[in-house]
Amino acid sequence: MKEQSPDLQARLRNDDKNALEEVYLTYKEAFVNYGLRFNLDKEDVIDVYQDTVIAVYQNFVIQQKHIDNSSLKTYVFSIGKYKIYDRLREQKQFVTKVDAEDSYEEIKQEELVLSEEQTLLQKHFRHLGKSCQEILRLYYYRNLTVQEIVESTHYKDQNTVKSHKSRCLKKLIALIKDNK
Predict the structure, then answer these.
(1) 85 and 154 in a common domain
(2) pLDDT tens for residues 9-58?
(3) How many C-beta neighbours within 10 Å does residue 161 have?
(4) Helix (H, G, I), strand (E, B) or coil at 153
(5) If 0-12 CB within 10 Å is exposed, 13-18 middle and 19+ buried, where does residue 159 land?
(6) Does residue 30 sit in the same domain as residue 52?
(7) Do 69 and 140 lie in a common domain?
(8) Could you give the number of structural domains in the chain?
(9) Residue 148's pLDDT is what?
(10) Domain that holds residue 34
(11) DSSP-derived secondary structure letter, 58
């Protein structure tokens, strides 16, 4: 993935069509890979991504929004995540409960068959504290970088995120090993 230019947000606010194209091309592959995890067809994920980019454009150009506390990638994925949920609801693939504290809710799907390792992971993941669950979801499930986690959460710096993630992962591994 190519790096975004530092003034991309400003260029978007100034209705620069090249900036919009840059956003679209920069995050498309990562978003499609993220969206495929929800068992949507690739075409549906691409449709959702296009709707997401349009929403980002509207927010920056029409509403002149600023996203000072998070990266543009985090902003795009946040909008896209809810658009994916809307698409799944339209297709009646899942029912979700949105909690203000934890917007990374579990997705319940029918006829989901898990391997033995996945079952163990799921079982022991539930025994972790909320902060451990959140940081592991952000890093491993949403594929956010450590810096993006800092920008979108209460953590003060990258070292704090790294050490917390490491402790949580070690705790999860220990829980799984103790149960075998």
Answers:
(1) no
(2) 788 888 888 888 998 999 999 999 988 888 888 999 999 999 999 888 88
(3) 22
(4) coil
(5) exposed
(6) yes
(7) no
(8) 2
(9) 82
(10) 1-108
(11) I
b/e code 110-133 from CB counts within 10 Å (16+ = b): eeeeeeeeeebbeebbeebeeebb
Helices (H), 37-157: 42-57, 72-90, 116-125, 130-136, 146-152
Tokens read off for 51? 């709707």
Does residue 61 share a domain with residue 120? Answer: no
Greater confidence, 155 or 108?
155
State pTM to two decimals: 0.50
Taking only the tens place, the pLDDT of each residue in 84-137 is: 888 887 776 544 444 434 444 444 444 445 577 777 788 888 888 888 888 888
Same domain flag for 163 and 139: yes
- Tell which of 93, 108, 123 closes a domain: 108
Residue corresponding to tokens 């996945």: 118
In the DSSP assignment, the letter for residue 141 is I
At which of 61, 77, 108 does a domain end? 108
Q: At what angle do helices 17-36 and 72-90 cross, to 10 degrees?
A: 50
For residue 99, what pLDDT is reported? 40
| CB 51, CB 85: distance < 8 Å | no
